[in-house]
């Protein structure tokens, strides 16, 4: 295999070419320490506060799109072929960009430290939706913390951007073709390798190259969205070299619907799967929007969430409940297994060295089936689940037919509630049946106490979610979320 | 001028245009002097014990490390205690008193190296049993870090015995991390002799100056501390910045190079103090009307290993336990407990919120006992206008407007009709339940340390008519620089654009107080106004001389001086005054009048005035999971005559949401070993935009003026609105109470996480 020896990307209006680079070089440190672009702030260095939000423009399959990411946990090695836009680059006809001016006029900043990140998140939103609703603004700001304002003036500013300028007149919109041309000029399928001392970086451009490089370096750290690997570096100061970055792959982020199944490449991000979820799996729409914040959803991948093996990962419970199948690949060889069997024990997955999550096949619910997903956390958005649950149930006459119930946060792995399923299967579809099945939870789960929730709460809420599933699907109960959505009054 | 223009009003924050452009420099954005070194602190890994050995071999072999600092390297005193109790070491000497206590600082050529190397220190301990929470500390005998306070009025024992009804209860009130977006940071630049310049993210530059001088063993005149702005403070940078500043200064003097120190977020959260957790226990005697006859309560606080500000914090808890209510017979006691946890500190409200929520819990208890709307109980106990207006600390509440504020809000928020609807909703819904609550706030304004109520300002007018303002207050986002500049411009009757506010520096205005206790504008605005009046007097005298007219015929107009009919533009006036050798610089000063406080007797007038407010919150809970959302909130808050409505509204809304976070999702969770497990935003959850009430109405009281002669008759606004969030907890409580037909007070502890809600629901279902 031939390799190029440098990472190339655009930073605002500057072409950056790096032939010396360390695996763990974060974008935030690169901006602040190397480029003295200090408008981008470090608030937490773990991708939770959004003060470091910058835009990453990517050209994928001919489509060019900017998305907000957390620079603190983005690695420079993952930026090849992108256009990075920082707060310093923003401009408007009269100096400030319309979003900036709206924030000034509506008192959207107090201490101002989080403000550049808010501006960038709103900018990413605005480019997709020039006239956002309050709900859309809240969704765009799930990954941005402000401790001063209480958010109200920021939401007001975001609702009133149009008073300060139009998207058509936006500088990045005007410069769009130029930026596409710049990135197109960087496109090729030659993989990149950079070595510096003991440190080794690989940036494959195709899945086949990834398979070959990983098979040759099975000890390497695979870095996709870096929403977890980033913290290995910024919090645990772990070495991640040799490292293989998946973000420049041109054939690893496809999704399609085929024969009643969603076929999802391992490199698909949460954000990129969202349109298909809204269309084909609306029962998962709210749940999906509560995973991380916008930046994390823009970065994190389904394959990464699964391969990571965390007992509190948010994708496994719904995917297991839907009966997903995983395709693992090593070199040229692939094998398939039911997703639920991938998780063996805490910290242990059925993945051989050099093997990576290639694809996930997710059967769509049968038309008459009931599917529901619930996420329990201290804070509604951008919080790690204390308990996640997914229910899939088919009705067989007046009885309960095939069903799968999966929980996260209840054991060392995402896990099916097999005893509960057994207690329900073939029984009459009544609340009594569901109530009687509650006892089976104690056979399925012995949850832990930690800072997210105590064991007793986890067990209780796990049981009650089963009842909620019944009440909402077969009873008359209104859901908290429906009421919440209906209650929102547009901010003006 | 055809129209009077005003410097006051809702102008944007003075730095807003820089905030939004990433052009506002925080400390970490300032260009470092060449050769700047970086310090990183190594922390203890046990909560209590004695250091047996320290081995820094692996630290020092790191190629970029220059050395380490321990207690041996401190030229002066190893202490940053703000109350001169000498109980707050910079580095643990021998005894380790909490998990995460600083022991060593590693000095390296760059931060990453210092941080990595700091992890390689090998420190062994002789571990001791650790007291982590309030109950454990009480069980072990209840050692105090600072003397307790008792407030007393009437005869609580006799009144309790005679009261028709009595009840006892307790409430756990959680602490809170400040979560300022900009973490702690300091940079020290060594100068000649013993001098050092320290740039610090601090609310209290004078104290940092004082601490650094102590640590270096030198005088305060050798230390110059500067802060242009902080990325949030909230009390977390009142005393907590001093340690970082001291480490940077000690290292800077030792290595004769600039030294910067900035802990990672997780380390910052582990090693700096927070809002105190409290356990309030109470007995109340009352009658069928809900009138309180007697109240006896203890407020036990987790203070951590040292006093820090726990004395005044726990005092203020007692000062606010009455909130708006007259307790004829009362005894309140504070219990500032020593624990093996980080030393807790100032946080917006300064103990007041914890005291107030304890008092409000008592109201709630009575309401559920009597089967009444808590609002009725509140009204039955409001301080009277003429009688029944003595506080437990014997100050007379003489500016009471709470009844009017509550009446106005009750109507504008449609409270009564909505309460009926809530009750109906709860009858017809099985899993979802609503709750609604109207709670009032009265908050005392002034430092209870009376000598703190002073401020200075320095105003220069330059030859071109531009004005430079400097004062002792610090800017942490609250808009202090904006407001004081507006006050100054208004006094001088000039365009606020003439005024530039320069970074707060201890060599410009000395002996300043912390920017805290909501006092910033009250104190510094008055000091700036004093300077302005001095300058105006000189300019008037000069103009009278120049035009040979009486001083009485010289009048200040907007951007000009009216000299017996002749208008002299401000710039012209200044240029002429300079040529005539008029002194165009003035130092202003202010001290708050009338206040006094005797802690020994528990009597005095510690507060110059009170700020008032009220809130209605409505929530919906899911009784299956404990999840909830805040449906609607209406706030009505008193800021007197507002100097800047935009900034004041921001304080009210922001304070409310921060208070809501404290009472809902923000949970400090320590392991049995004393390790804080919620030490980052991944585990410590402050509110997000989507946690805002689904309807959020905020209004300022339009008719209120401060009775006292404050800056433009405005009122302090930083802390009081924080406590409006108590309405959220009480609304959640009502929703929980619905599962037992409102017959049992749910005794919901704070923070009311979904877990606490569900557990309370289950508990009440079991009791009904």
UniProtKB/TrEMBL annotation, chain A:
Q: What is its EC number?
A: 1.17.1.4
Spans traversing the lipid bilayer: none
Q: Which SMART domains match?
A: CO_deh_flav_C
Task: Please report the stretch or stretches of sequence annotated as the FAD-binding PCMH-type domain.
Answer: 194-367
> Matching CDD domains, A to Z?
fer2
Q: Which domain of life is it from?
A: Bacteria
Q: Keywords, A to Z?
A: FAD, Flavoprotein, Iron, Metal-binding, Oxidoreductase
What's an example of a GO molecular-function annotation for this chain?
A: xanthine dehydrogenase activity
Mind telling me which SUPFAM superfamilies this protein's record contains? Answer: 2Fe-2S ferredoxin-like (SSF54292), CO dehydrogenase flavoprotein C-terminal domain-like (SSF55447), CO dehydrogenase ISP C-domain like (SSF47741), FAD-binding/transporter-associated domain-like (SSF56176)
Q: What class of enzyme is it?
A: oxidoreductase
What protein name is recorded for this chain? Xanthine dehydrogenase small subunit
**Organism, per UniProt?**
Maritalea mediterranea
UniProtKB/TrEMBL annotation, chain B:
MF-aspect GO terms = xanthine dehydrogenase activity
**What are the residue boundaries of the Aldehyde oxidase/xanthine dehydrogenase a/b hammerhead domain, all occurrences included?**
21-129
Uppermost EC category: oxidoreductase
Q: Pfam families from the entry?
A: Ald_Xan_dh_C, MoCoBD_1, MoCoBD_2
* Keyword match Oxidoreductase: yes
Enumerate the PANTHER family for this protein: ALDEHYDE OXIDASE 1-RELATED (PTHR11908:SF132), XANTHINE DEHYDROGENASE (PTHR11908)
Q: Does the keyword Nucleotide-binding apply?
A: no
Q: What NCBIfam families is this protein classified in?
A: xanthine_xdhB
Q: Which SMART domains match?
A: Ald_Xan_dh_C
Write out the entry's keywords from A to Z.
Molybdenum, Oxidoreductase
Q: How is this protein named in the record?
A: Xanthine dehydrogenase molybdopterin binding subunit
Query: What does the record give as EC number?
Result: 1.17.1.4
């Amino acid at each position: 295999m031939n390799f190029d020896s440098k990472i190339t990307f655009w930073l605002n209006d500057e072409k950056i070419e790096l032939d010396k680079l360390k695996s763990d070089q974060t974008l935030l440190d690169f901006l602040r320490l190397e480029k003295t672009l200090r408008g981008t702030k470090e608030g937490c260095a773990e991708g939770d506060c959004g003060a470091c939000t910058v835009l990453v423009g990517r050209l994928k399959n001919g489509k060019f799109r900017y998305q907000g990411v957390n620079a603190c946990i983005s690695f420079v090695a993952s930026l090849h072929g992108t256009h990075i836009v920082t707060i310093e680059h923003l401009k408007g006809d009269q100096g400030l960009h319309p979003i900036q001016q709206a924030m000034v006029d509506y008192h959207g900043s107090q201490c101002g430290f989080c403000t550049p990140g808010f501006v960038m998140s709103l900018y990413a939103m605005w480019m997709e939706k020039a006239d956002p609703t309050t709900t859309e603004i809240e969704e765009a700001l799930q990954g941005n913390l402000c401790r001063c304002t209480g958010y109200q003036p920021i939401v007001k500013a975001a609702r009133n951007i149009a008073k300060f300028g139009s998207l058509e007149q936006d500088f990045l919109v005007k410069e769009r073709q130029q930026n596409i041309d710049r990135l197109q000029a960087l496109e090729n399928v030659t993989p990149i390798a950079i070595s510096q001392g003991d440190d080794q970086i690989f940036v494959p451009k195709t899945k086949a190259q990834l398979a070959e490089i990983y098979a040759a370096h099975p000890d390497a750290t695979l870095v996709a969205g870096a929403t977890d690997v980033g913290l290995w570096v910024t919090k645990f100061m772990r070495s991640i070299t040799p490292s293989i970055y998946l973000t420049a792959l041109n054939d690893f982020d496809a999704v399609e619907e085929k024969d009643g199944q969603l076929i999802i490449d391992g490199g698909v991000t949460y954000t990129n799967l969202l349109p298909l979820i809204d269309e084909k799996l609306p029962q998962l729409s709210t749940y999906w929007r509560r995973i991380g914040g916008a930046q994390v959803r823009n970065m994190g991948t389904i394959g990464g969430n699964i391969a990571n093996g965390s007992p509190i990962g948010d994708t496994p419970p719904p995917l297991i409940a839907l009966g997903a199948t995983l395709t693992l690949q090593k070199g040229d060889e692939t094998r398939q297994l039911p997703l639920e069997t991938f998780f063996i024990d805490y910290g242990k997955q059925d993945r051989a060295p050099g093997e990576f999550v290639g694809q996930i096949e997710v059967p769509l619910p049968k038309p008459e089936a009931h599917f529901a997903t619930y996420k329990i956390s201290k804070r509604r958005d951008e919080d790690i689940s204390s308990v996640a649950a997914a229910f899939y149930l088919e009705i067989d006459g007046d009885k309960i037919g095939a069903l799968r119930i999966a929980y996260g946060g209840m054991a060392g792995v995402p896990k099916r509630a097999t005893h509960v399923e057994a207690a329900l299967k073939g029984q009459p579809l009544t609340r009594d049946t569901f109530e009687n099945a509650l006892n089976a939870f104690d056979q399925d789960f012995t949850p832990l106490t930690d800072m997210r929730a105590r064991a007793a709460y986890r067990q209780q809420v796990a049981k009650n979610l089963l009842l909620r599933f019944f009440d909402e699907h077969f009873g008359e109960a209104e859901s908290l979320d429906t009421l919440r959505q209906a209650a929102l009054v547009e901010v003006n | 001028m055809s129209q009077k223009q005003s410097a006051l009003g809702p102008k944007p924050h003075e730095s807003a245009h820089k905030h939004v452009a990433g052009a506002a420099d925080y400390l970490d954005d300032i260009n470092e002097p060449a050769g700047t070194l970086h310090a990183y602190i190594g922390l203890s890994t046990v909560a209590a014990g004695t250091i047996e050995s320290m081995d820094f071999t692996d630290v020092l072999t790191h190629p970029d490390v220059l050395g380490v600092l321990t207690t041996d390297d401190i030229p002066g005193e190893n202490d940053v205690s703000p109350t001169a109790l000498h109980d707050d070491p910079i580095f643990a000497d021998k005894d380790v008193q909490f998990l995460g206590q600083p022991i060593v600082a590693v000095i390296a050529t760059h931060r990453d190296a210092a941080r990595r190397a700091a992890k390689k220190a090998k420190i062994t301990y002789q571990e001791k049993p650790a007291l982590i929470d309030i109950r454990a500390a009480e069980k072990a005998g209840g050692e105090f870090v600072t003397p307790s306070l008792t407030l007393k009025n009437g005869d609580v024992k006799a009144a309790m015995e005679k009261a028709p009804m009595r009840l006892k209860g307790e409430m756990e009130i959680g602490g809170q991390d400040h979560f300022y977006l900009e973490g702690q940071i300091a940079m020290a630049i060594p100068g000649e002799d013993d001098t050092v310049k320290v740039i610090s993210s601090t609310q209290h530059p004078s104290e940092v100056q004082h601490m650094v001088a102590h640590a270096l063993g030198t005088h305060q005149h050798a230390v110059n501390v500067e802060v242009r702005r902080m990325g949030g403070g909230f009390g977390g940078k009142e005393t907590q910045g001093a340690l970082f500043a001291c480490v940077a200064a000690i290292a800077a003097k030792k290595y004769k190079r600039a030294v910067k120190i900035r802990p990672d977020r997780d380390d910052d959260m582990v090693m700096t103090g927070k809002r105190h957790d409290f356990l309030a226990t109470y007995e109340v005697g009352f009658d069928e009307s809900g009138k309180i006859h007697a109240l006896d309560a203890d407020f036990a606080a987790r203070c951590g290993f040292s006093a820090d500000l726990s004395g005044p914090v726990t005092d203020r808890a007692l000062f606010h336990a009455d909130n708006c209510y007259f307790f004829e017979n009362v005894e309140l006691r504070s219990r500032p407990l020593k624990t093996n946890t980080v030393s807790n500190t100032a946080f917006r409200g300064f103990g007041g919120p914890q005291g107030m929520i304890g008092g409000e819990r008592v109201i709630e208890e009575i309401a559920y006992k009597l089967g009444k709307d808590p609002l009725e109980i509140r009204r039955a106990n409001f301080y009277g206008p003429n009688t029944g207006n003595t506080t437990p600390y014997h100050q007379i509440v003489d500016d009471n407007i709470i009844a009017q504020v509550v009446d106005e809000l009750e109507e504008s928020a449609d409270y009564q009709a909505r309460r009926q609807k809530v009750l109906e909703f709860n009858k017809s819904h099985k899993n979802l339940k609503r709750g609604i609550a109207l709670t009032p706030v009265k908050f005392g304004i002034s430092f209870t340390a009376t000598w703190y109520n002073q401020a200075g300002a320095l105003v220069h007018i330059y030859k071109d008519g531009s004005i430079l303002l400097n004062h002792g207050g610090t800017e942490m986002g609250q808009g202090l620089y904006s407001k004081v500049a507006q006050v100054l411009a208004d006094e001088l009757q000039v365009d606020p654009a003439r005024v530039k506010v320069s970074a707060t520096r201890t060599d410009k205005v000395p002996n300043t107080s912390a920017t805290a206790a909501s006092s910033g504008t009250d104190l510094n605005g008055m000091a700036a106004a004093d300077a302005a009046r001095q300058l105006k007097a000189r300019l008037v005298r000069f103009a009278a001389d120049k035009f040979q007219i009486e001083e009485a015929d010289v009048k200040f107009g907007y951007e000009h001086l009216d000299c017996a009919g002749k208008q002299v533009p401000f710039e012209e006036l200044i240029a002429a005054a300079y040529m005539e050798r008029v002194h165009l610089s003035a130092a202003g000063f202010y001290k708050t009048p009338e206040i006094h406080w005797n802690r020994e007797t528990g009597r005095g007038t510690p507060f110059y005035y009170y700020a008032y407010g009220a809130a209605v919150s409505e929530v919906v809970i899911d009784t299956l999971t404990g999840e909830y959302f805040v449906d609607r909130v209406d706030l009505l808050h008193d800021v007197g005559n507002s100097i800047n409505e935009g900034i004041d509204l921001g304080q009210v809304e922001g304070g409310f949401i921060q208070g809501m976070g404290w009472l809902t999702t923000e949970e400090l969770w320590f392991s049995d070993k004393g390790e804080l497990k919620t030490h980052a935003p991944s585990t410590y959850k402050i509110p997000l935009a989507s946690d805002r009430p689904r309807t959020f109405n905020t209004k300022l009281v339009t008719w209120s003026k401060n009775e006292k002669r404050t800056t433009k008759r405005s009122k302090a606004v930083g802390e009081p609105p924080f406590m409006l969030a108590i309405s959220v907890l009480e609304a959640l409580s009502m929703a929980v109470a619905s599962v037992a037909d409102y017959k049992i007070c749910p005794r919901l502890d704070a923070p009311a996480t979904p877990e606490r809600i569900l557990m309370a629901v289950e508990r009440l279902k079991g009791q009904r």
